[in-house]
């Protein structure tokens, strides 16, 4: 069949096959003759055979081409089916465990794909950011505060959220509550500031020695945009404390009666009618110098129980305030104290809020009760400690009664029964102020007032007030 292959190389046309055949035949006419006349082919038959062979060769060539085309089509179909199957896998329904707990479906991306942490879309070609252990489109990397894109080379973070440095400083860098500026850093690059332990008022360390005044009641520093009310003895009051301030002796009398009732309720009635006087700072200091015995609170004495015969000046009229928060002069007159008993008077510094004035008065009333009951030669920590216990008890009673009254008033239109002089309603700030005065007593670090109070408080909680007082009278010490 070597000739057939030669024909395929030259061509598959019928005309080419017929020409070659004739040439071969004419080359040797006797070499291919049959032996009998019955085996001879006619010329027409030979032409039919040539034509059939050529047609067969053409059909074989077309079949081979069809096979190649069909294989290519099958390969394309397989690729298309694979792509469709992968797309169906991405949208497959959620899987459930044997416990019927829903497992959220997480799409499986091809290796090397990146998901933006801002918009949660896949990041294609182009620029992207790799920050905070995540990938971001540049326009999706935004400040948590202002929601604008962050294009700076440096940024700040808080809780895995990015911030512009300026936005972070505005939101997290502490500002001084006095000057309202950002608190500066110290030479080590750290933010250093001071803060009140109760009010948490933050301020620059420089304000402690630059003359910034404090309120003589709550101890908060004066903000530069809000001026405190000056008193003519050099002290200053914030506007909140001024709202409940007691300024003269007459105004203090209802409070004095309330505290007398408080002592009566404890079966500790003060038999002697002890004069109560509100005085200025200078008069209180002068009276303290004239008293031969007694321990005085540092840094400033705000109350005194006198047992010596003296002459002092008492405040008679509430000072008036003019424009610019300037205070006009107060009116005072001499008051001669004569000794008819062991206690001659109780002096309280004027210009303090009602709750602070009351706690000081309750403290000094305890001094008077101890002296009138014959408690002598007590150590300073025991006497001052039990007096602080009574002041703390009165503050707690006032705050509790105010809360109970507010609860009743919120559910009923009728007022709770009370004395006409007692103030039952308190503002939110006044209650906070009362808690601050209690905090001052509890956190006092002085060995006389602080340690004495804590020892007395422990004894009263363990044995009760009356048993503690009996033990003090017999032994001069707290029971343990």
UniProtKB/TrEMBL annotation:
Region (Disordered): 22-41
Alphabetical UniProt keywords: LIM domain, Metal-binding, Repeat, Ubl conjugation, Zinc
GO terms of biological process kind: regulation of DNA endoreduplication
Positions of transmembrane segments: none
Domain annotation LIM zinc-binding: ranges: 114-174
Xref: InterPro entries: DA1-like, DA1-like_dom, UIM_dom, Znf_LIM
Top-level lineage group: Eukaryota
Keyword Cell wall biogenesis/degradation included in the entry's annotation: no
Key word DNA-binding present: no
Pfam families recorded: DA1-like, LIM
One MF annotation (Gene Ontology) recorded for this entry: catalytic activity, acting on a protein
Name of the molecule in the record: LIM zinc-binding domain-containing protein
């Amino acid at each position: 069949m070597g000739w057939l292959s030669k024909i395929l190389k030259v061509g598959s046309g019928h005309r080419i096959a017929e020409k070659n055949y004739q040439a071969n035949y004419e080359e040797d006419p006797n070499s291919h003759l049959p032996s009998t006349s019955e085996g001879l082919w006619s010329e027409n038959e030979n032409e039919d055979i040539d034509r059939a062979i050529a047609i067969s060769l053409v059909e074989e060539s077309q079949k081979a081409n069809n096979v190649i085309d069909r294989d290519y089509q099958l390969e394309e179909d397989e690729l298309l089916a694979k792509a469709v199957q992968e797309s169906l896998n991405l949208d497959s329904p959620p899987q459930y465990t044997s416990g019927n707990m829903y497992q959220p479906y997480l799409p499986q991306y091809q290796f090397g794909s990146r998901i933006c942490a801002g918009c949660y879309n896949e990041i294609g070609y182009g620029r992207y950011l790799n920050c905070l252990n995540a990938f971001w489109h540049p326009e999706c990397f935004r400040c948590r505060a202002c929601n604008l894109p962050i294009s700076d080379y440096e940024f700040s973070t808080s809780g895995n959220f990015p911030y512009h440095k300026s936005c972070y400083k505005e939101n997290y860098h502490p500002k001084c509550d006095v000057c309202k500026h950002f608190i500066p850093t110290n030479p080590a690059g750290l933010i250093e500031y001071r803060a009140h332990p109760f009010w948490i008022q933050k301020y620059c360390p420089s304000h402690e020695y630059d003359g910034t005044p404090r309120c003589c009641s709550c101890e908060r520093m004066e903000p530069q945009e809000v001026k405190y009310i000056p008193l003519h003895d050099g002290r200053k009051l914030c506007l909140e404390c001024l709202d409940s301030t007691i300024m003269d002796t007459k105004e203090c009398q209802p409070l004095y009666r309330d505290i007398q009732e408080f002592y009566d309720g404890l079966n500790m009635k003060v038999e002697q009618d002890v004069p109560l006087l509100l005085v200025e700072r200078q008069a209180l200091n002068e009276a303290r110098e004239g008293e031969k015995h007694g321990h005085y609170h540092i840094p400033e004495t705000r109350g005194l129980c006198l047992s010596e015969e003296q002459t002092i000046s008492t405040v008679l009229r509430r000072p008036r305030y003019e424009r610019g928060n300037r205070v006009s002069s107060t009116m005072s007159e001499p008051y001669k104290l004569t000794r008819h008993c062991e206690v001659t008077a109780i002096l309280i510094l004027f210009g303090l809020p009602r709750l602070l004035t009351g706690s000081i008065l309750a403290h000094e009333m305890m001094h008077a009760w101890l002296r009138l009951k014959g408690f002598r030669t007590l150590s300073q920590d025991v006497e001052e400690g039990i007096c602080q216990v009574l002041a703390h008890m009165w503050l707690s009673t006032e705050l509790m009664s105010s809360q109970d009254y507010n609860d009743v008033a919120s559910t009923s239109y009728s007022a709770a029964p009370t004395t006409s002089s007692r103030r039952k309603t308190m503002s939110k700030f006044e209650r906070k102020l009362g808690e601050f005065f209690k905090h001052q007593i509890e956190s006092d670090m002085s060995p006389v007032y602080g340690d004495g109070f804590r020892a007395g408080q422990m004894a009263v909680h363990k044995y009760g007030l009356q048993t503690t007082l009996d033990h003090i009278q017999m032994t001069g010490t707290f029971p343990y």
